[in-house]
Every structure is written in C-alpha cells, then in structure tokens.
Amino acid sequence: MILTVNGTDRESNSYLFDAMFRIRARVFHERLGWDVVVKDGREIDSFDACHPLYIVSVDEISGRVRGSLRLLPTTGPNMLRDVFPVLLGDGEIVESATVWESSRFSIDQEFGVPLPGQKLSYVTGELLAGIVEIGLSVGLTEVVSVFDARMVRIFRSAGCPAEIIGTPQRIGTCMTYAGLFEISERALQSIREACGLTHDVIGTRLVRPQTVA
C-alpha cells in the first residue's frame, strides 16, 4: 500500500523515515555509487529539510517499507534548479505552480523485480501511479525529475517516457537526464497496465508539500 507523509511529520513517523533513508543509502550510495552523504547508514540531504511530500510503499501485512520518493514544488528549493542546473540551457528554468519535482526514487532491491507477464515490479508501478494520482488531485500538469539511464528504461516500460529537457550530462559515473512527465489519466492507465494495478493507490488524506523560501 501507499502512504503519503509530509516532512513535518518525521517525529511521529520515525520508523517510516528511518527505513526510507536506509533504503536510499543502499540504492544511491552502495548500488549506484552516487556522491551522496550517508551518516549512520542513512542518506539524508538538505531537501529533506524543505518539508517535501513523501510517497512511501509499505507492505500491508508486515509494515515493511519497500520504497519511496519525494515531491517538492518547483516554486521553492529543488534539485534541478539548485544542484543540477548544468542539465538545462543558459537561462532555462522549470518553475511553475503546476509542476512539482520528483526525486530520490528508490526501491528495496528485493521488490524491484517484475512478476511474470508484467513490465514493471508492483512497487515501482505503485510509486509511479502515486505520483500521477497526486498530480491529478492537486491540478498538476507535469512532474519534472533528474534521473539516470536505469530510470529511462523504467519510464519506457511504464508507458510514460520523459520529455527530455536540456542536455544529458555525465555526472559522476552516471549519464544524467532532466525530464518532464505528463500528469494525465492516460499516463495513469499506462502505469497500471504495466504492473497489474487495478485500483487507486492514494487514500483520501493528502498533505501538500510546503514551499520553503
């Protein structure tokens, strides 16, 4: 199942946050070798202090966290503008009330394999569907993200390939892209078909991320 948690709720959801940050450390530091700061087995950066909205996949029976991502408005601090501006052309910026940024998409390796006959793992599809469902509920037109080549393959398998903006660059060991993703019923249906989803993944309670100057 999917839980949506605001960054301001960290103390009351300490288990979720601890598991999420540990998965991020395993994915981005250990597996991908990104230049991220890991402390006590957890990967946390400055954008986690900006009160993002987190989408977290949790096993309904065991309560185990399986993966997560975070959403931030592009009208406030975000990774594309503040960390990866090199991916955009001179003077180019993505900033709109109807465009949010998705970042730190990460899944526990055990849950990243698609079932037979599916193009995506269930957890991958659940997280992607969560982005689109939230986007539709708050009136977004697009989501922007910075991602590597492995995510390009995932997005294609989901039937929601990115519109690449700017120029891909090799950052560290990874070819890195910036892309825009359509928020639409069509995109949501494609994701559901790719992983076997038959229902909405987001409940009725939704807390928006907060814009931090």
Structural overview:
- The protein is α+β, with helices and mostly antiparallel strands.
- The protein is 28% helix and 27% strand.
- It has one domain: Gcn5-related N-acetyltransferase (GNAT) (Aminopeptidase, 3-Layer(aba) Sandwich).
- It is built from 5 helices and 9 strands.
- The mean pLDDT is 90.
Provide a quick synopsis of the model.
This protein has 213 residues and is of the alpha+beta class.
List keywords for this structure.
globular; 5 helices; seven-stranded mixed beta sheet; alpha+beta; 9 strands
Note the topology.
Blueprint: E1 2-6, H1 14-31, E2 38-39, E3 42-43, E4 53-58, E5 65-73, H2 79-82, E6 99-107, H3 122-138, E7 142-148, H4 149-157, E8 163-171, E9 174-182, H5 185-195
Parallel strand pairs: 6-7
Antiparallel strand pairs: 1-4, 2-3, 4-5, 5-6, 7-9, 8-9
Whole-number radius of gyration? 16 Å
- The count of domains is 1
Distance N to C terminus: 32 Å
What class do helices, strands and sheet pairing give? alpha+beta
- Principal-axes shape call: globular
Largest sheet: 7 strands, mixed
Give a count of the beta strands, DSSP E runs of length 2 or more: 9
